[in-house]
Amino acid sequence: MPACTSHGAVDAAMRISDAAVILHGPRNCAFLMEYAFRRRVLNNSAERSGTIADPGLYSTDLDAGETFVETRKNIGTAVSRAKEDGYRTMFLVPSCTSEIMSTELGPIAAELSREHGVEVIPVSADGQFLSSKFGGTIGLFETLIRRMSPKETVKGSVNLIARWFYGLGKDRNTEAIGHILDLLDLRVGTRFLDFCRIADIEDFCSGEMDIQIGRGNLNSKIADRISEVTGRRRALVVDVPTGLCGCLRLIDRLEEYAPWIGARADAARASLRSEFGSMLEPFRPTFEGKRVVIYCIMARDLKWQVETLRGLGVDISAILFADGGMVDHDARRPDYGDIRVLEGSTMCDLRAIMASEAVDMVVTNDPDRVSREGWNWGPLGSRWSGLEGPREWICVLADSLRVPAGRWEAGL
Amino acid sequence: MRLEADGLMGAIVGSESLGITNTLINSAGGCRSRAQILLRDLIPSYEPEDRGCCRSKYFSRQSRLPCTYLNNNDIVFGTGTKISEGADSVSSVNGLRTVVVDTLGASLLCTDYSGLVGQGGQSPLILDGDLSSMGFSEGYDLAVSSILGDTDIDGTDNGAVNLLGYGIADLGWEQGSADLRVLLGSMGLRVGCIPGCRPSGNDVASMGGAALNVMVRPEYSRRTAEMLERRFGTPSLEPMEGAPVGFDATRSFVREIGRSIGVDPAPALDLIDMEASAVHKVLMNYDRLPQGLHAKGVIVKGDSSTVYPLLKWMYGTLGMAPRKVVVNDDAYLSKIRGFLEAAGYGEALEGYEGDAELVFTDGISALEGRIGGGTTGYVAIGIPQGRTMDLLGRCVIGTRGCRYLLDEAFNSITRFRCGQPTEVDFRPEH
Q: What is the pLDDT of residue B121?
């Protein structure tokens, strides 16, 4: 289900702990955004170190009566409340209500900044009214990128630009990337945009280089703008490095991007291969000769999963790709060699294979429907990246071979 | 939570609490998607859904809260066509009438709602009022009264008691409503319709014949009670001590109903006393815990019909000191103020804060408090919920609510206490 333009900006700005976010709209908009943020952050808090972020979100409490008079007063009241709570920097975000009213937030923000001795920063609205949450997100990022000022470079420091910080970052995933960088004598610098303070964003340019993790449009737009505004070299684009192939690919790409790390790259590759091999070894007796079918909705790139299964000696009978509600036209489609690949598959195709072949397990990202059939099944992915991904996945698959499909859905 | 929902969310929840209409949100997608998350927690029991809803783009592959998904064109053309088509589309899936809830943004678009005729002649019901200027409970009441006011209801006397203002916006409402049915049933009363608890069509259709409408939470039901009184002449009761929260308020609740309708509350009082006695025995075993709350701070934030009796319970029974009291509405505000001033804690309403041993608040804030560490106990008494699910029936009202509130309070104060029992000669005599 889609979100709204304002939510994109508000959700990103709430990650900045020393800035308030003032949403110019009715109370309910801000309430729902605070609810969504707190619910997510609180339930993810065990996966993050540090204190739990307070969203610092304020509403201008618009109602129908106020929309037809001057709403500056409402904004001023919200600014006062935020100032009383100790904030000196505030992002002023428009909502669809203020957009319909054609409220010019720029002059109001400037006036209130002078009046209250704080910095009220207007966030640009989506160029296209209510197109998607990313419209508002871009407005916020534009504001943040303009605060990145020239700094003395810290050698070996690598900034990460990734939407998954902005979504649900996890310490272990950052550590997994840190582990690879560490093998190259590099370290993670600013994570944009993770939980942070304004100063962290302003320090962005102290990083020696930037990596864009994930090829999505939003990531690309942000990385493009950073380069355009700051004059920094365009960030290196890499996929989220998962599995051995993903980690090695990251090193290859880094070597192309920053040839000076070449001396350490071979040793890093050897180290990762050795770690991966040691990880697989104890599980090989469990998996050797086992036959699995992969049933996959929407995603197309299963390179690290196939690599891992093959490394374990698993016989992959077929990969069935089923279409889902969304089509990713840019999906990467690796070559799976001699494995039978069936595009546009359905559950009927899977049933036919299961009826005619001796399959030990279905590996799938459609557990709802597959588990209902009563077959042994295991998940298709991991919550972790780097080598943590396959490590966790193998353990779950090993147990998936031993445990029953589970019958809770039919009744307790 | 720093922020409170306004009447829009209240209207959505109110409409869905009745469950006899589709609630079409005239809004951008974001208003719907997060309301959908919140609503799923409020209706915890899954019932197989009609997959036919996938045929309607307004449902967007969910069975609740269809949406018009406002966009650029709507600024120019208004949303009349979308609402008309949307109401037809969603009604064609399940046959239910459609209630249209406007967001503030949608209400600013020039839209002519007159002459809308929906599926099978069922014209969509447009909620009339500025929801953004209302509190959550006010919006809830507006939606319920508007829908019921426009529904065929039989006024033939049936002697039942309707319970208004209690429903899915309450924690553990399925168990809470069952508890009230048992208490009132013991008095020989039949509970007719509880509009907020997704009643059956029959219960709604016969609610006009009730002998009494009890406003369990007046802030959620005054308008509805007035409408029913106008339509059917049914008298209503606003409990003096607030909602039945805590043993004393629950006793008062059944006494008042008994008095209003002319039945003896003794059987219900016996049930409450039995429960109170059973709980008391447990507290006596851990006597240092309730004793440890004496003169310790308590913060209470929530609906006034909960805050008033809860505050009196914590103060009167456990001897706790009100540190801060925040109410979402003014139904019992003057009583709360009077009580606090009489107790010498008038400043609690102004936001005075000191150390607090217990905090009663919404579910998300309670979750945050618990995760945040410290010894203070946090008890959820309102939505949004912080728990992922509840299989134990943690409700706030009735005798079951008493158990939940005390259980959660004592178990959430994370402080070591010596397990050595109090010396026998210091205990009450046998």
A: 61
